[in-house]
Design a protein that fits this description.
homodimer, 453 residues, Aminopeptidase, 2 domains, six-stranded mixed beta sheet, four-stranded antiparallel beta sheet, 13 helices, 20 strands, 35% helix, 21% strand, metal-binding (chains A, B), Peptidase_M20 (chains A, B), hydrolase (chains A, B), protease (chains A, B)
Chain lengths: 453, 453
């Protein structure tokens, strides 16, 4: 009965949730461009204070503030921590949007705005769940701590500093990550992990300045040199070819493998969405799903040398540069891998290549049999009437390890997202029905989580 | 005595030559970008008409016009043909220029501008030599034909068409190529040949659009694919690794080898100028000189994929592109080599890589004992008081074969250039003293060439 009051409150206040989402979306907050971040942080803090949370902006040495909010339960000692971010991706290319990315226009049951799905709807949804408990019951089923950072979209460069600085008040028994919700076919999905990342930039400089390419007969070309060096890093099937790279890779547990087997993957649909005829190394089926969830990657995110304009120029370039993101899996240690990479280059005779480590984050993976994972799955059943899909790990990355490792918080990603929300792309949108159902899911998790005390 | 009048006129009109050079340089004429070409052609034609030459713009089916100028001698039936080009390389990277590349600023006796040395000074210099004869003597010592094309820097894609179309009026007994002048130590140099070129662009497209790099776990990255394909084209010592590539390479004659042995090459100076610690594959001495004059090359002139801006972006690029110039030597046939390249890629499993042939030119090499070569050497002695250096071949390229093969014109390259002119690079410049001495050299060649009749 109590549960029905909560759900009814959420349904009855859908309009208010949408208005809050529009308010947040109409405040641009682009971390890559440093636009509107403090203003958006203030808005988020304002929404928390309105509901009765203690909320403050925590300043860091550099970068925008983190919004911290908390509210204690009278009836439970257990604490659930929410991780969210108030920053968004740049809205470019603007010409492909059907409405202004900051207008938060509603069309056909969706709010269209940059940041609507990633990640402002999840902030609003979690606040709506909290409000439902407070308004119907006057109490929360568990303590809530809210951490909302402002640099997720630029790799959370100062978030580790925040976590280390504030770790004493971030204690809890479980956490909910920023994203998640409905998968294809509107089946709820629970994600248990994120890959880590080592982001590096290579630079080879062989000449003081660009030269006439006639000199290629007697002078080494930096593009050749970089190309040869990178060519030693990965084999044709996508496997990293650096000795020791896989030494600390933790395999899947039998339970995780079972979850992977059950995970649906619309291969033909995905191929057609991406415009490809086959997957890397011809993979399919379980192998493909294992690769997405568990394979380290070595991706060239950028390569530049010489003249890349129209027509032809015969230049011997002075330098060549490449950016690479290596996605990591448990229990790879990015610092150790950076050393392996450096040694690999040195041993192959490429010690002159400049290597700049731009960011390093370990992977995170919460066990399938952890309490928070079980609660997320059970409540998905209750709210959506369907067995949820369990993603052992997202193929993407994020600072989840700061929750799972540093704060020792078992963490799952669930929320109010939906497929075709165009995150990081033009016409990003949030389905209003998913916002509401996701809120009910979060409320159900809070209740079950607190009741365990 | 007559010779002294000519030289005096050249000295006395140095300022006018510099003004003409500035005028030409202030007209951008970037063939790679299609900028300012007709305007520059008109300027060149105007300078010719001013001196009394018959001059016209010859239109081709595509591309900018060729400027053709001629003036007959009253006293000689022999014809010397000048080859020049009015187009220039793109000025990038702009930030490394100390003055605007189109300002033609004079600093410390040099004119700084894109195209100043390559090749506008030589146009101005040859016109100044013609003017000196006409003004002091009222006649030329030989017939002059002037061919000034507008696409040399993009591989002269339509110049063969022009030569075939106009060959009947391009008859002559010898030709002077576009460049040449002073070498290191201000010793005059005569160049007898040019390498050929095959310029190609590769494109690999693996995705419909840029994607999140998390997908690198299951989708091939086009940069990896291009990097692997290019990696099969050349070995570490710079040798082209395509089967059959060297089959038609003609070796040096004993005379040519002797010239190569005598050719000075300031290795330490060159290394320090280029900012390198050693030459390709550790070459030195005769091997190095033979490489410059006679080795085919495979140069990456440009490589682009993904995100190359500041900071980090985790993108799986949709495509990767590379531009390569292959320098060719006698008697390699660019068309045959293009087929070898295509087959090589196909056989290595890279048949999907798009390969666009952007230009193809065979090499040219005029015999050391030809009349024009002997005149160029003898007059160098007269004008500079020093035995000239003979370069069997430039390391650079150009459509000289259309003169030596199609028009049967023995051709040498001499002019008013100087080392440290930064051609194809930022801060390109023309030394004014070299402009004047080079003009005297051209005048001496004209005189000797006409007198042979």
């Amino acid at each position: 009965m109590a549960r029905n009051h909560i759900r009814k409150h959420i349904d009855d206040h859908a309009e208010q949730a949408v208005l809050r989402l529009q308010k947040l979306c109409r405040q641009p907050s682009v971390s890559a461009q440093g636009v509107g971040l403090r203003e958006c942080a203030e808005l988020v803090r304002g929404l928390m204070v309105e509901l009765g949370l203690h909320a403050e902006l925590v300043s860091l040495k550099e970068g925008p503030p983190v919004v911290y909010g908390e509210l204690r339960s009278q009836s439970s000692k257990r604490t659930l921590v929410f991780y969210n971010h108030y920053d968004v991706q740049p809205p470019d290319p603007l010409e492909l949007w059907e409405s202004d990315p900051w207008a938060a226009e509603i069309r056909e049951g969706r709010v269209y705005a940059r940041g609507a799905a990633d990640n402002k709807a999840n902030i609003v949804s979690r606040l709506a769940a909290i409000e439902a408990f407070l308004k119907t019951r006057g109490d929360l089923p568990c303590n809530i701590k809210f951490v909302v950072e402002g640099e997720e979209e630029t790799g959370s460069p100062h978030f580790a500093e925040y976590i280390h600085q504030e770790r004493s008040r971030l204690k809890g028994e479980g956490a909910i990550w920023e994203f998640g919700g409905l998968d294809y076919g509107d089946i709820p999905a629970v994600t248990l992990g994120l890959k880590g990342m080592l982001y590096v930039e290579f630079c080879v400089k062989t000449l003081a300045k660009d030269s006439h390419s006639a000199r290629a007969a007697i002078v080494e070309n930096p593009a050749w040199r970089l190309l040869r060096a990178l060519g030693t890093l990965r084999d044709e099937r996508g496997r990293v070819a650096i000795e020791g790279w896989y030494d600390d890779v933790r395999g899947f547990t039998p339970e995780e493998l079972k979850a992977l087997e059950k995970e649906p993957l619309q291969e033909e649909q995905l191929k057609s969405d991406l415009g490809i005829s086959q997957f890397l190394a011809g993979m399919s089926g379980l192998e493909l799903k294992k690769a997405l969830a568990g394979n380290p990657t070595a991706n060239i995110a950028g390569f530049y040398s010489g003249y890349i304009g129209e027509g032809h120029k015969t230049v011997l370039p002075a330098y060549a540069k490449a950016k690479m993101d290596f996605r990591l899996v448990p229990d790879q240690d990015p610092e150790a891998l950076a050393s392996l990479l450096r040694n690999h280059l040195k041993q192959r005779g490429f010690g002159d290549i400049q290597l700049a480590i731009q960011s390093e984050n370990p992977a995170a993976r919460t066990p399938l049999n952890s309490e928070i994972a079980r609660i997320a799955c059970d409540t998905a059943h209750e709210v959506f009437g369907a067995e949820p899909i369990v993603h052992v790990s997202s193929a993407g990355s994020g600072p989840m390890h700061l929750f799972t490792h540093t704060l020792k918080l078992p963490t799952v990603a669930i929320g109010c997202n939906h497929p075709y929300s165009n995150t990081h792309a033009p016409n990003e949108n949030q389905r209003i029905d998913a916002l509401i159902s996701g809120t009910k899911w979060i409320a159900a998790v809070m209740e079950r989580f607190g009741g365990k005390a």
